[in-house]
Amino acid sequence: MASASCISLLLLVALAATAVSAQLSPTFYDTSCPRALDTIKSGVTAAVSSNRRMGASLLRLHFHDCFVNGCDASVLLSGNEQDAPANKGSLLGFSVIDNIKTQVEAICKQTVSCADILTVAARDSVVALGGPSWTVPLGRRDSTSATGDTGDLPAPDSSVAQLQAAFSKKNLNTVDMVALSGAHTIGQAQCLNFRDRLYNETNIDTAFATSLKANCPRPAGSGDGSLAPLDTTTPNAFDNAYYTNLLSQKGLLHSDQVLFNNAATDNTVRNFASSAAAFSSAFATAMVKMGNIQPLTGTQGQIRLSCSKVNS
Ligand code: HEM
Hints:
The protein is mainly α and 312 residues long. It folds into two domains: 24-152, Peroxidase, domain 1 (Orthogonal Bundle), CATH 1.10.520; 160-289, Peroxidase, domain 2 (Orthogonal Bundle), CATH 1.10.420. Helices cover 48% and strands 2% of the residues. The chain has helices at 2-22, 36-50, 53-67, 80-83, 94-107, 114-128, 160-168, 174-181, 195-200, 206-213, 241-247, 254-257, 266-274, 276-291; strands spanning 188-190, 227-229. A two-stranded antiparallel ribbon has the order 1-2. The site of protoporphyrin IX containing FE has 26 residues, from helix 3, helix 8 and strand 1.
């Protein structure tokens, strides 16, 4: 008797632990809005073909959404969260999501959440730039507020230990962290985020640093916003060149190069540099995990009519 109730208690705990992600399902809109996924995909494909960087910007929006209070589209609300220092003047792609939402609303009124649109758009962006695909669990709902506290986002001057702490707080392990950092195989960063690395660090390829210094002079202030590709080798292709760059000390951000600097993460970096397939598979797995961070489900939150504001 005692052991039977012990087993049922264990079962209950196990069920409770999987309950959140179990509420998300890849078939969530199959009957309520069967054309939702195609509509999102064509919106993303069009946006990325007119501006390759947009794929990177949409992927980053999803990351910044999920790490701050869960994947609840809070980052899309005008105000607090968008204006926090980690985001202001740095996040792009809001109008692309707004346009896709308008198209989705036209076919299915108040059915598909902005949080799901953003999650699917991140996947479709990776695919549009030549990266792997994966199945996206759906059924997230949208927050009714946004916070100004973006403290859970890792900073570009982080150590490996700080990065590990930030990711483990979101139940993402070290391999997930190294794989997700591979998102920096696309997109761009502003000089203010890598200037210190160019002038103060020694684990940087000399010719690489010299070429970047031209557009990122000292002191701080001048050229703060000038851009450089995060992956200097294939800036617009979603491939594993991010990791081969790290092997030759051509990581752009401090937080990139720390992953290959006599750290516990060195072997994972070597593995992803030598196997595009290993990277693709780990990235897809980690993206699904990231997309499952604290979603609002069921009757929580709302389905926004417009992604940039809560329903009135
Ligand atoms: C590991 C910790 C991370 C740090 C410290 C970090 C930091 C940064 C910084 C500083 C930038 C440049 C922003 C600017 O200069 O305006 C950037 C860009 C970017 N990040 Fe990360 N990031 C991290 C992880 C991630 C993850 C997990 C993803 C997605 C899965 C991601 C996707 C991107 C993309 C795609 C860009 C380029 C965006 C664009 O070109 O518009 N990052 N990141």
